[in-house]
Specification:
globular, Glutaredoxin, five-stranded mixed β-sheet, alpha+beta, Thioredoxin-like_sf, two-stranded antiparallel sheet, redox-active center, disulfide oxidoreductase activity, Thioredoxin-like_fold
C-alpha cells in the first residue's frame, strides 16, 4: 500500500513492517561489525546449508563493516524440530554462543523463555521471505539467498548510493 499524498509515493506497508522488524531488535542475535557501515537482518534456519555458509564467514562480513542481525525462520514450519532447537538458541543465556555452537554441529540444551519464534516467522512471511537465508536491508528491501561477503558489501554500497541519491 502506498501513500501518494506527498511529493513522492511512500510504501506504507514497508514502513509498518520495518516498525515490526525493529520491535524484534531485542530478540535478534547480533554480530556487530567493529567499524559498522551497513546493518542487515538475516532470516535464518539452522538446517539451511547456505545459512551455515553465511555464518561461517561472519568474521569477513564484520571486517567489511557489515553488522548481521539474525531472526529465526524455520523452513519446515513452526512445529518442526528445527523450530524447537531455534527456540532453545534464542532462549539461551548466551544466544551468540548457542547459535555458533549449533551452526558448528553441536547441540544446545533445551531452554524456554518469552521469545516467540512464530513472531519472527510471521514477519518473515509478511516481508516476502520464502527461503533462507533472506536478507532484509535497513529500508525493508528483501534480498533472497546467500551472497559472499565481498559481493554483499558491493551490493550494499551500491544500494546505499542509489537510495541516498549520491
Amino acid at each position: 500500500m502506498y501513500d501518494v499524498s506527498g511529493t513522492a509515493p511512500v510504501n506504507v506497508t514497508n514502513k509498518m513492517l520495518l516498525k515490526q522488524l525493529n520491535a524484534l531488535e531485542k530478540e535478534m542475535i547480533v554480530y556487530k561489525a567493529p567499524q559498522e557501515k551497513h546493518v542487515i537482518t538475516v532470516f535464518t534456519d539452522i538446517t539451511c546449508g547456505y545459512c551455515h555458509k553465511l555464518h561461517e564467514q561472519m568474521a569477513d562480513y564484520n571486517a567489511l563493516g557489515i553488522t548481521v542481525r539474525y531472526l529465526a525462520f524455520p523452513r519446515q514450519g513452526l512445529d518442526s524440530d528445527a523450530e524447537k532447537e531455534m527456540k532453545a538458541i534464542w532462549c539461551a543465556k548466551d544466544k551468540n554462543k548457542a547459535f555458533d555452537d549449533v551452526m558448528a554441529g553441536k547441540s544446545v540444551a533445551p531452554a524456554s523463555c518469552d521469545v516467540d519464534i512464530a513472531d519472527h516467522y510471521a514477519l518473515g512471511v509478511q516481508l516476502g521471505v520464502s527461503g533462507t537465508p533472506a536478507v532484509v536491508l535497513s529500508n525493508g528491501t528483501l534480498v533472497p539467498g546467500y551472497q559472499p561477503p565481498k559481493d554483499m558489501k558491493e551490493f550494499l554500497d551500491e544500494h546505499q548510493k542509489m537510495t541516498s541519491g549520491k
